[in-house]
Amino acid sequence: MTQLSAPVARAVAVLNFLAGHPEQAFTLTEIAKTLRLSSATCHNLLAALVEAGYAYRTAGKTYVLGPALARVAQASLAPAIIMQVARPEMRLLADEFDVVCSAYHLVDNEVVVRERASAVSHITWNAPYIRTVPVAAPLGREFVTGTEAVFDAWLDTADPPLEPAYRVKLHEAQRFLCARGFTFATRTVPLVDRETARSLQYQAALTDYTQAAIDPAESYQLAYVAAPVFSRPGLAAFGLSLAGFTGPVTGDRIDLMGERLRAACDRIGAFIAGRELR
Question: FRET label pair with 204: which of 10, 19, 54, 215, CA 20 to 30 Å apart?
Answer without folding.
Answer: 215
